[in-house]
Specification:
Elements lengths: L1 H13 L2 E3 L2 H25 L4 E7 L2 E9 L5 E8 L2 H37 L7 H12 L7 E4 L3 H9 L1 E3 L1 H4 L3 E6 L18 H8 L4 E2 L5 E3 L5 E7 L22 E3 L2 H6 L2 E7 L5 E7 L1 H12 L6 H20 L16 H13 L3
Helix pairs in contact: 1-10, 1-11, 2-3, 4-7, 5-10, 9-10, 9-11, 10-11
Length: 357
C-alpha cells in the first residue's frame, strides 16, 4: 500500500495545474453572472414561442395559438372568440414577447463583448465542436435531465469551478461520452427541427456530416470526432433492453458499460465553462470525487487499452488534486459517496490525500 501511495503522489505532482490570475478570475465570475442573466432572458423569451393570430372560421373570428408540444408535434389551441378581452390579451402577449426578445438580444450583445475579453485573457478551454454539441443538448432539454457529460470533457467543468487549468495532455480530446440515465424516460424539448430522432438529429444540427458508425452507440463526423452514447450495465446484463432516445432509423443505441452506475448515482456537478471563442456554456457532469475514483479504477483494469489506462490515471490524479486543493467543500468521505464500492473508494483515497495543500 505504501508503494502504491508513493506512485500516485508522484503522479499528482507530475501534473501541472495552473491557477488563473486575478484578471482571469474576475472575468470568469463576470462571464458566469452575465450568462445566468442571459439564460433567464432566453427562458422568458422561449415562453412566447409559437404564434398568436386571428383565425377566421365561417362568420366567426378566433384568437388561435400555434406551438410545438414536448414531443415536437405542432399544436393549435383557441383562446376564444374575438372580443375586447381577447384583443387585450393578444396586445399584452405581443408586448411582453417583444420586451423579452429585446432583453435577450441586449444580453447577447453583452455576452459577445464578454467573449472578446475572454479570448484576450486566454480563458477559452472547451473545444468548439464539443461546446456546440453540449449547447445543443442543453437547448433540447436533455443536459442534466437524463444525460450527463462524462469522460475527458467533464474535466473542463472541474477546471472552471476551481479557477485553474491543467495540462493539455489531460484534457485534449477528439471525442465525447454522453452518459444516459437508463432509469429515466427521456424526450426532447419542443422542437420541430429534430423530429424523428434525438441524439443523431441534434448532432446533425451541429455538423451535417455526423453519421452513425457500424457500432450503433457511436456517431462520427467527417473529421473523425466521435460521440458515444453510454449507459450503466445492469445485473444480470441480459436483463437490459435497448436504451434509445429518438425514433430515427439510425438513432444511437446506448452501450452498457460496467462501472458507470457509480457515475449515474453520483451527485450532479454543474459549472459554467468557456469555449475556444470565449463564449460560455453550461456543463452538467458527475461529482468530481466519483469521477476521479472511477478513472483510477479504470486505470487498474488489465483488459483496458494500455494507452487509455495511462490517460485514466493522469485524469484521476489531476481531478483528485483539484478537489483536494481547490474544491475543499467536497471532502473525500463516505458520506455522499456510498455509490462507490468500498475497495474502489479506499483505493482512490491517496489521490485526494496527495492533493492536499
Amino acid at each position: 500500500m505504501q508503494q502504491f501511495r508513493w506512485k500516485f503522489i508522484m503522479a499528482v505532482d507530475a501534473i501541472e495545474i495552473h491557477e488563473l490570475n486575478k484578471d482571469q478570475l474576475r472575468e470568469m465570475v463576470n462571464t458566469a453572472q452575465r450568462y445566468a442573466a442571459w439564460r433567464d432572458a432566453h427562458a422568458q423569451r422561449a415562453g412566447f414561442r409559437g404564434s398568436l393570430v386571428w383565425h377566421h372560421s365561417g362568420s366567426s373570428e378566433y384568437l388561435l395559438r400555434s406551438y410545438y408540444d414536448g414531443a415536437g408535434l405542432r399544436r393549435q389551441k383557441t383562446q376564444g372568440l374575438r372580443s375586447p378581452e381577447t384583443e387585450a390579451f393578444k396586445a399584452q402577449w405581443d408586448a411582453q414577447r417583444e420586451a423579452a426578445t429585446e432583453r435577450e438580444k441586449a444580453l447577447q450583445t453583452v455576452l459577445d463583448r464578454q467573449a472578446a475579453i475572454n479570448r484576450a485573457l486566454l480563458l477559452g478551454r472547451v473545444p468548439l465542436l464539443g461546446a456546440r454539441i453540449i449547447r445543443a443538448l442543453d437547448a433540447a432539454g436533455l443536459l442534466g435531465h437524463g444525460i450527463r457529460i462524462v469522460g475527458t470533457n467533464a474535466v473542463y467543468a472541474y477546471e472552471a469551478a476551481a479557477g485553474v487549468t491543467v495540462d493539455a495532455s489531460v484534457t485534449t480530446t477528439e471525442d465525447m461520452d454522453l452518459l444516459v440515465d437508463a432509469r429515466r424516460s427521456l424526450r426532447l424539448a419542443a422542437s420541430n427541427e429534430v423530429a424523428g430522432g434525438a441524439i443523431i438529429s441534434l448532432l446533425r444540427k451541429v455538423d451535417r456530416s455526423f453519421q452513425r458508425t457500424r457500432q450503433d452507440f457511436r456517431a462520427a463526423n467527417s473529421d473523425g470526432y466521435l460521440v458515444d452514447l453510454i449507459t450503466p450495465q445492469t445485473k444480470p446484463p441480459w436483463s437490459m433492453g435497448e436504451v434509445r432516445i429518438g425514433a430515427a432509423a439510425d438513432e444511437l443505441t446506448a452501450i452498457p458499460i460496467n462501472g458507470l452506475a457509480w457515475l449515474e448515482s453520483a451527485p450532479v456537478f454543474e459549472a459554467v465553462a468557456i469555449d475556444e471563442r470565449g463564449a460560455p456554456l453550461r456543463i452538467v457532469t458527475t461529482d468530481p470525487r466519483v469521477f476521479a475514483a472511477h478513472k483510477f479504477w479504470l486505470s487498474t483494469q488489465r483488459d483496458r487499452d494500455p494507452l487509455k489506462r495511462r490517460r485514466d490515471a493522469a485524469q484521476a490524479a489531476a481531478v483528485g488534486r483539484i478537489v483536494a486543493s481547490y474544491l475543499t467543500h467536497l471532502p473525500y468521505e463516505t458520506q455522499g459517496l456510498r455509490m462507490l464500492p468500498r475497495p474502489v473508494f479506499e483505493a482512490a483515497r491517496p489521490l485526494f490525500e496527495a492533493g492536499t495543500p
